[in-house]
Amino acid sequence: MLSRGTSAPDTVAAESSARTYRYHRTYRVPPSLESVLLHLEPGHDAFPEEKTAEELAGRLKELAELLRQRPARAAEAAERLLAAEFKGAHLTSADEAASGSPSLEIFRARGLPSALVLDRATFRGELSALVSGFEGVQTAELLITAIDAETGLAPAARTTVRFDLAGDARGGGRAERLGHWQMRWRRGADGAWRVTEWTALDDLRSRAAGPVFTETTAAALGGNAAFRRQLVPGLDEWAARLDAVFMPRGMGHHGVSVGDYDGDGLDDIYVSQPEGLPNRLFRNKGDGTFEDVTEAAGVGVLDRTSQALFADVDNDGDQDLILLTRTGPMLFRNDGKGHFTRDADAFQFKRGLQGSLTSAAMADYDRDGFLDIYLCAYGYFIGVSEDKAGPPDPYHDALNGSPNVLLHNDGHGRFVEVTDEVGLDVNNDRFSFAAAWGDYDGDGWPDLLVANDFGRKNLYHNEGLVDGKVHFKDVAAAAGVEDYGAGMSAAFVDFDNDGRLDVYTGNMWTAAGQRVTAAPGFKPDAPPEIREIYRRHTRGNSLFRNRGDGTFEDVTLAARAEFGRWAWSSDAFDFDNDGWQDLYVASGMFTRAADEPARDVDSFFWRRVVAESPLTRKPGTAYDDGWRATNRLLVSNGAQAQHERNVLLRNDGHGGFAEVSASAGLDVDQDGRSFAVSDLDLDGDPDLVLMAPRSSPQLRVFRNDLVSGNASLALRLTGTKSNRDAVGARATVETDQLRVTRTVQIGSGFLSQHSKELLFGLGRSQTVRKVTILWPSGLTQEVPGLALNRRVWIEEGSDRVRSEPFRKAGAAAPAAVASTPIAPLPDATWLYQPFPAPDFALRDLDGQDRSLSSLAGRPALLLFWATWAPPSRRALEDLARQGQAFAAAGASVLAIAVDPPSDEAKVRAAAAGLGVPVMVASDEVAGTYSIVNRYLFDRREDLQLPTTFLVDARGAIVKVYRDPMDPAGILADVPRIEATAAERLARAVPFPGTFYASPGERNEFQYGLELSEQGFDAPAVAVFERVAKLDPTAITLYNLGTLYMKRGNPLGARAAFERALEMQPEYAEASNSLGALLAQGGELPAAIERFRAALQTRPDFPDALNNLGFALFQTGQPAQALDLYEKALALQPAFPEALNNLGIFYGRQGDLEQAEGYFRQAVEKRAGYGEAATNLALVLAARGQPDAAVTVLQRLLEENPAFEMGYVTLSRIYLKTGRRREAIQALERLLQRNPTHPLGLQLLREAQSGG
Fold first, then answer.
1. pLDDT digit string, tens, across residues 556-593
2. Could you tell me the end-to-end alpha-carbon distance of the chain, in angstroms, rounded to an integer?
3. Does residue 449 sit in the same domain as residue 525?
4. Beta-strand relationship, 320-325 and 305-311
5. Which of 243, 269, 497, 619 has its CA 20 to 30 A from that of 579?
6. Of 157, 182, 210, which residue sits at a domain end?
7. Phi-psi region of 168 (alpha: psi -120 to 50; beta: other; left: phi over 0)
């Protein structure tokens, strides 16, 4: 649906690397997610329209590519797309309403004809006209936002398509055209979809003759080694190189802030980073460039930081710094000379923080002259995990989030929690992303807006003093701003210049969500008002106009302000200085690199997560599984809301907005998260700093170069009785043309802090009549006689006013600089926490048995390589040349080839004469170490070849090396293996900095779970035994018991399940598994008791229903068993075990036809399902179809070669049909895998003897 050109950021770009070789393997889908992931491809659930949408998106992609590659020949699309009977209307109109300015022209079609007067030939001209304003089209985005299937002789559909074309304008500059089409489609006899009708619903075009925003990233920041080495690579790159203990599945939630830390009158930039990478402070030098002063300023914090705020918390005249870190807020006090020192005792909580801090906002809520801070917390979850509260409950109105916190500045250096005292604990149970302070009702007391994911917003009205204390009341519902949605940004703005603060919130605009929530299959049993709330979740951002009576009017659609894609920081600034606040949105979620395989999960998320969400919380539902599946996809190769460009909406001054993102040069395609607005070059217009941490470069600077001719005025306010930063001060500038009001804020949007300078665009104003300031203290101060186009300093209560003219536009811009080479990222990683290397036992090419455990007491190097990966062969040769030196250093070298066993001859040839022990990895060893690599590094990549693990004498991995390898450097690392925790930490991070809290712990639970899911039970047992010893939680013991059960250790399994139930008596899964274990041991009454206990906790537990049914079936109660099987299938239609049990039921009844049908369904639902496949084969053989039975078993053994009874059953069928030789071959295959298999040995003897 999207065709785009690559947009290089300024002249800074990461260099491309040589080909990387990886050991790729197909990972099993956990059985619990099989039924969910069957629906990854659309068309197999209640939303058949999504399959059609996917097919039509392919056709639209053809159109987009044609428009992008050859706009001058756009008419050729008619031949490809239009049906022979096509009829269309004109797509453009000569009747347009013009707005904007000569430097940024905007034209909106007043009326578009709907009459279908054009045939296929004449419609060619419309396609040409569509792109006539472009010299070249770099972006052609065509999104299906609505679809209706139409019945008839041939498949047909009606779609609404949002189009967005952007590129170089004819005659120079940038141009953009966007709007909506309605298109009817018909599938032809050849299977291709073609358009039968095409009309335009709206059309907007814009053109900037010259630059509006010019990216200056390379010139501004490229001179800093810290920028080039740390911030040019995106966090996805760092996630592949830093120990995963530092970056647990980061979402890129790290913001950017501006503030004048050194008091020189220029805003500086502070960048927040994940754990292990230092936050960065860049000083504005005033000439268009910035210098890295992080270490000199003492703010190279290595703790994971989401947001930073510059604020004068002690009113001493300099900017202190507050950081939101993984363990809580941190305060760094400024000594007035540009150096910061942490105040470790600054924050005092009544209870420990719950959830992760996302963002914060500051205000003087009690008007005591000191700034207070409100912290937003978010209870991150990864599906259903061992240490999470679970997914949002319910999705559309979640009330199981983490509480936010208000901290009061006591004026003596301490921030003390007062959340409950002031009434902010009401409705304080949501998933909060952002907050903003603003006095929306003009009573002098700052109110609080909170944007929450998965539901409603909060608007806490500050009631002022109540019984001597300030008190807040949540009035969101009464005020009309609950705004159901995926709230991710909060801002108070005055978009209509009436002097009252309006509300602008960032939510989610999603084409897939709009389609799915409008489909007939979406929650058909839910009340209409609930379905409408879900549709609201897909609508986009919201704009509420302040009526002035304490309530707000939702003007989003009327103002055309909803579009913002997957919106993160969404806020207002007047980019063209016309006096009207425009809206800007940082957009996008998970975009994969161009060379990465990616699977778009947008439709899947709405079909299998949102559509399955219960209206009231029920654990263990398809909704939970949908979340687990989505998150599993996203940490591997999933993409969500990818290539969503940032959005700029220009305010037309008449209550409406027009998108000009591309024309203005701000449609950045980079998974943006936050932005900061500041007049960085002091020329009187707002510049922009953008933070998009996941990709390259993380930080970008855009200079405002629009030549608008508009006037402006900048105010810098200093409080005296009020807080010194004047936060909360409301300034109104009245001119001969306009009356504009702005408020000083700290923290707005999401993860963002804009300049505290108030910059007023004043359009065509000729004079300033007066400036009125309402200070937080209550003082009203008028300042007459100010001139336009100046920067003005005003102190509260003082008549002394200082001003200076703006600098000339472009005066601070340095000459363009050439791209500076980017320093290569590290190819080796010291681990902060040594990681136990899984043991293995392999035979080397000389026939000698080798194992990791046999090397205990001495270090080792484990090289993973392959003959088909040339760099890894070179690494093998290089290590072999250093073999004697490694031996002298006391280190063993083992080379493990991941070639298939059939290529052993190639391995022998490559290793000949090298003198290094070489082994060919078994599937388990190769797979286990591939998973080790995925958990050592957060990017979850497949194992790169070569990779060498340096293992210490205790058998733990301490360092990982990749291509290119330096054997001499590796040799030098051997004597450095033994190290203190502090030494390990210093080695594990690539740049200097300070940790103020210990890094988090590695999540071995998820690692063990992955090993178990992939069938690597031996290493998984070792992991869970280790985890159970350190942290014996119920879920850990449950998983350990499950593994013991699989590996034939019933006593260990029983003990683990019983311990889990002692800790958590209502643990349904543990009861169910214990029941299954008891049933296997013949203790059916006890088993039935456990199954019933599981169902008492979870009545809709399909597995327990199925297991209880089978136990009752075994005790002679088939009718009850049948009822339970059918209940289980009603809850989970694609339930292989229940289908298998139904097959057994009908087989026992002698109904082999029905039995065969259920066995077939079970095999179809789960590939490699051994029990069902063998049962199906036996039924087929009994029905006189031995060849079909053999085919079923052969396929089974291809899919699941470890299922030993498959060989046994296959051999028996061969023997019964006289195919003794093939029976012997099947048994020999079994005994190669398990030489002591008793039944296999017995059958082989019988077959060989002719019995």
1. 999 999 999 999 999 999 999 999 999 999 999 999 88
2. 65
3. yes
4. antiparallel
5. 269
6. 210
7. beta
